[in-house]
Amino acid sequence: MREWFHPSNNPGVIYFLVLFLVILITNFSMRGLASGMVIMGGVLVSVLLAWFGWWDEVFSWFHPLTFHLTSGACFWFSTLMFLTWSLTVFGLDRLSYWEVTAGQLTRKSLFGAGSQSYNARGMALEKHRDDLFRHWLLGIGSGDLRIRTCGAAREQLDVTNVLFIGSKYDTDRKRT
How many domains, in total, are found in the chain? Predict the structure, then answer.
């Protein structure tokens, strides 16, 4: 059986650099302009090395090291990553949710803790969407919500990656 692969290291290197950037962006919060500068700098260096064909030169410094992927390796790895993501987003993330009712905010968990309610009187909400890549590019308009309760037991609750937080935040503010 014949296997087809590109003669240079570029496709494999770019594939894993994109994967690395997505993992980096989603796990480390870099706010504002710093996020864009770090990511765009890394992308610029990677693309320039690929454009001029220098990735092969870089890998030749580590004599026997080459970086080739077959299309099957890219396909199966990407499929496994997609299945893991979809199980997390459409399955596991649905096991815990927030319910907003008149005068009350309740966190409900299907397994384990049950529910926890907070009085909405005097509650402060903060919307954070200043991570360019995590909230706008990868998150499609998501953001983080910080809730500060008041009363005898003050707490700070962080709800991360709320999809379409702008419209939800504005709707909740109009109700009060």
Answer: 2
Rg, C-alpha atoms of the chain = 22
| 82, 76 contact by CB (below 8 A) | no
Say what the alpha-carbon torsion angle 53, 54, 57, 62 is, to the nearest 10 degrees: -120
By residue range, what is the domain housing residue 140?
Answer: 96-175
Task: Give the pLDDT confidence score for residue 171 in this predicted structure.
Answer: 59
Q: Looking at 32-41, 103-112, 114-123, which range is the least confident one? A: 32-41
Residue 71: inside a domain, yes or no? Answer: yes
Select from 73, 86, 100, 90 the least CA-distant residue to 169: 100
Question: DSSP characters for 30-74?
Answer: --THHHHHHHHHHHHHHHHHHHTT-HHHHHHTSTT------HHHH
Helix (H, G, I), strand (E, B) or coil at 116: strand
Residue 118 falls inside a structural domain: yes
Helix (H) or strand (E) holding 128: strand 124-128
In a domain, 3, yes or no: no
CA distance 157 to 160: 10
